[in-house]
């Protein structure tokens, strides 16, 4: 059964009765659709695991913020106060006097930033065990009608329209510093800005860096090529782009030579233009000039927290921009590389701090 969201007592009563009877409800969140059951109902949680086709992996629990202390030991309160409700799952130590299916010492808690779910949680007595609407390992299904067709064991689907987003960010607050175990819609640097310190990233993740210039033929590919000599591909993925509509062109010959001198290679590089997908992909965007910075913010204002002039990132410098060597001699290209070199080394060290394995 597919139900449109209605702000009526009858609508919420039907959902509450469905959940209390141990049935599965598909809910729209602020990211993707989720399958939800009463989190204290053992048989319902087991049914959820069967639909998900996974065993003994803990589910996330939705509950009102007033209940956090009842089920968990709340730490890193600044992060919770700033980001919750929102597209983040925080992992906390579970209270020892509380028993929940599949949960041992840690519990993942989330409150989506949607009026519908916030109201439902305020009216429901128990936490909801929730997982994304998909079979484990597959992409989430973003259409309520497709969910109803594909998952016949789901009793009720709440129609919140087509949802297409990253899943929630998952942050383990039981560790100090907090450990990011899944990247999501909240930028890493935004969390670090609120926390005041660098996070640790799970070794299964990568920190993505994007370099941006004008045409993507010289400065940004040079930065990409040199930077790759400083970082491990296991922990960091690097790309470059330009603000001009130039696709598929080779790098400037002098740029290739300069990168070779630093022990890197951009011989296979082909130009590409900045896109919203690249902005979304990047955890850090480093630009050469103010106009490149402005281009990113015009396309995606939310990217301001992760976009910097390369020479300004966490540093104070007198001359912030890196001059464009295009059309000039080899000396100009070498000068551009020398100008960016200290910043590239600094950023590489900053990234290594985010991985415990790299630090050890």
Short description:
33% of the residues lie in helices and 19% in strands. It has 13 helices and 16 strands.
Please name the defining characteristics of this protein.
single chain; 360 residues; alpha/beta; DHBP synthase; Rossmann fold; twelve-stranded mixed beta sheet; four-stranded parallel beta sheet; 13 helices
Which secondary structure elements does this structure contain, and how are they paired or packed?
Blueprint: E1 2-4, H1 9-20, E2 25-28, E3 33-38, H2 42-52, E4 60-62, H3 68-71, E5 72-73, H4 77-83, E6 88-94, E7 106-110, H5 115-123, E8 128-132, H6 144-150, E9 156-159, E10 169-172, E11 179-182, H7 188-195, E12 200-201, E13 207-213, H8 219-227, E14 236-242, H9 253-261, H10 276-281, E15 284-287, H11 290-299, E16 307-309, H12 330-352, H13 356-359
Parallel strand pairs: 1-9, 2-9, 4-7, 6-10, 11-12, 13-14, 13-15, 15-16
Antiparallel strand pairs: 2-3, 3-8, 4-8, 5-6, 6-7, 10-11
- In helices, the fraction of residues equals 25-40%
Q: What Rg do the Cα atoms give? A: 24 Å
Overall pLDDT score: 92
Poorly predicted ranges (pLDDT <50, ≥5 residues)?
none
Using the coordinates shown, work out and report the CATH topology of the largest domain. Answer: DHBP synthase
Query: What distance lies between the first and last C-alpha atoms, to the nearest angstrom?
Result: 53 Å
Order of helices and strands: EHEEHEHEHEEHEHEEEHEEHEHHEHEHH
Oligomer: single chain
- CATH architecture call of the largest domain: Alpha-Beta Complex
* Biggest pleated sheet: 12 strands, mixed
- Provide the domain count: 2
Strand content: 15-25%
Task: Find the structural class using helix and strand composition.
Answer: alpha/beta
Fourth CATH level, the homologous superfamily of the largest domain: DHBP synthase
What is the number of strand segments? Answer: 16
Number of helices: 13
Shape: elongated
CATH class assignment of the largest domain: Alpha Beta
